[in-house]
Amino acid sequence: MSLNATPSSERLHIGFFGLRNAGKSSLVNAVTGQELSLVSDTKGTTTDPVKKAMELLPLGPVVIIDTPGIDDEGELGEMRVKKAVQALNYTDIAVLCVDATKGLQTYDTELIERFKKKNIRYIIAYNKSDLLESIPEAGKNEIYVSAVKGTNINELKEMTGRLMRDRENGKKIVADLVEKGDVAVLVVPIDESAPKGRLILPQQQVIRELIENGAMAVVCRDTELEATLSFLAGKPKLVITDSQVFEKVSSILPEDIPLTSFSILFARYKGDLSSVVRGAFQLDKLCDGDKILISEGCTHHRQCNDIGTVKIPGWINKYTGKALEFEFTSGGEFPEDLSEYKLIVHCGGCMLNAREMQYRAGFAADFNVPMTNYGIAIAHMHGILRRSISLFPEVLKAL
User: Fold this and answer.
1) Is the peptide bond preceding residue 58 cis, with omega within 30 degrees of 0?
2) Residue 69 in contact with residue 84, Cβ under 8 Å?
3) pLDDT value, residue 102
4) Which residues, other chains included, contact 313 with Cβ-Cβ below 8 Å and sequence gap of 6+?
5) In terms of Cα–Cα distance, which of 392, 387, 394, 379 is closest to 257?
6) What pTM value is reported for the model?
7) CA-CA distance, 84 to 15, in Å (whole number)?
8) Residues paired with residue 65 on neighbouring β-strands, in sequence order
9) What distances in angstroms separate CA 29 from CA 26, 199, 283, one per listed residue?
10) Could you give the CA distance from residue 207 to residue 316 in angstroms, rounded to a whole number?
11) Largest alpha-carbon pair distance within the chain?
12) Those residues with Cβ within 8 angstroms of residue 307's Cβ, 6 or more apart along the chain or in another chain
């Protein structure tokens, strides 16, 4: 996969924050070498977070986020500030842009506290340093820059690059489950909900990681799984299936072949698999009138038999036998108050970065609301949860 083809969910997100007229947008443009953000002397020019996926040398594939001023005023201003604060939920590295002629203000120090609370690595970039008579000594995570003159812009990018390298956790989707020469069978149903002419992102990413590690990916539909297994010279190392055909695949697959799903792999990759597995057992405790949130990280045209809005609610109703209420969110939408929900069932989060998924899981935990995901919920309701996580003995022990 080329750098430009790297999905946004896999790119490190670099957010630029600060007061109005501190020069955030000018600094973003200087760092990216593009007119990414509108620049004006008028306060509040940036009204919503501006996101741009790009290759930024020497950093590599990133998403740059230019946020509204944290000190915006009025009713619209409050909405803009809210958007800026929400951007912290998917920011991996923050650049706090400070007007060097004024120094740190109260809003700046409050932002720094937010960075620390959310465990976001950050840099304080004192912009407009060309207006200073002399440049003070910078602290460890500080740098004096000038977006207008281009002063220390490359040095700022180098600092960001070092933080990015420090942050990498080495997590894999599937590479640690296979060895060179292993065969993995991927079951990909093609129905009315499948995108025309392409595989969805989780399937692409799993295939790519398998190939990069010298394993072989054999892809088939659920209707051809039996024939595919018979064609193979030996048993595959594992089978990875789309969640909505979990039950059918499990009935076909011999018990001695490990089985899991794309969404389970992504739950492990982007968060804590054990907590998401425990969340599935909340399905056994639901009562009449309980409200369930079903949340998807992407937005797409919903088909008549959509998995999130049709299939999963149907399976849950059948499994529980209860009269339940369902609410749905998609894309960047996620409720600010989760107190009314008894369970959250989330998609695998392939379109969200790891920090956003971890934020949502942590936010649910703050409200004491169990959270699971599509694949794990489906496996539990079909009685194959233990089999579907057998590849992860540490998770089994936690049950």
Assistant:
1) yes
2) yes
3) 95
4) 292, 294, 324, 326
5) 387
6) 0.78
7) 9
8) 15, 51
9) 5, 35, 49
10) 31
11) 77
12) 193, 243, 244, 374
Question: Is there a contact between 85 and 95 (Cβ–Cβ < 8 Å)?
Answer: no
Three-state SS annotation for the chain: CCHHHCCHHHCEEEEEEECCCCCHHHHHHHHHCCCCCCCCCCCCCCCCCEEEEEEECCCEEEEEEECCCCCCCHHHHHHHHHHHHHHHHHCCEEEEEEECCCCCCHHHHHHHHHHHHCCCEEEEEEECHHHCCCCCCCCCCEEECECCCCECHHHHHHHHHHHHHHHCCCCCCCHHHCCCCCEEEEECCCCCCCCCCCCCHHHHHHHHHHHHCCCEEEEECHHHHHHHHHHCCCCCCEEEECHHHHHHHHHHCCCCCCEEEHHHHHHHHHCCHHHHHHHHHHHHHCCCCCEEEEEECCCCCCCCCCHHHHHHHHHHHHHHCCCCEEEEEECCCCCCCCCCCCEEEECCCCCCCHHHHHHHHHHHHHCCCCEEEHHHHHHHHCCCHHHHCCCCHHHHHHC
Backbone angles phi, psi at 186, to 5 degrees: -110, 120
> pLDDT (tens digit, 9 = 90+) per residue, 232-275?
999 999 999 999 899 999 999 999 999 999 999 999 998 899 99
User: In this structure, what token pair is assigned to residue 322?
Assistant: 């209860």
- Give residue for tokens 């060895």: 179
Give the number of residues written for the chain. 399
- pLDDT-derived band at 312 (thresholds 50, 70, 90) equals very high
Could you tell me the pLDDT band of residue 190, with boundaries at 50, 70 and 90?
Answer: confident
Report the C-alpha gap between 64 and 52 in whole angstroms: 5
| Rounded Cα–Cα distance for residues 167 and 84 (Å) | 22
Single out the residue of 246, 260, 202 nearest to residue 396, CA to CA: 260
Residue 256 is encoded by which pair of tokens?
């001695």
Per the prediction, the chain carries an average pLDDT of: 88
Which class for 380: exposed (0-12), middle (13-18), buried (19 or more C-beta within 10 A)?
buried
- CA 216 – CA 181 distance, rounded (Å): 7
Token pair in block for residue 224: 């051809």
Phi-psi region of 272 (alpha: psi -120 to 50; beta: other; left: phi over 0): beta
Token pair recorded at residue 313: 């609610």
pLDDT in tens, 241-253: 999 899 999 999 9
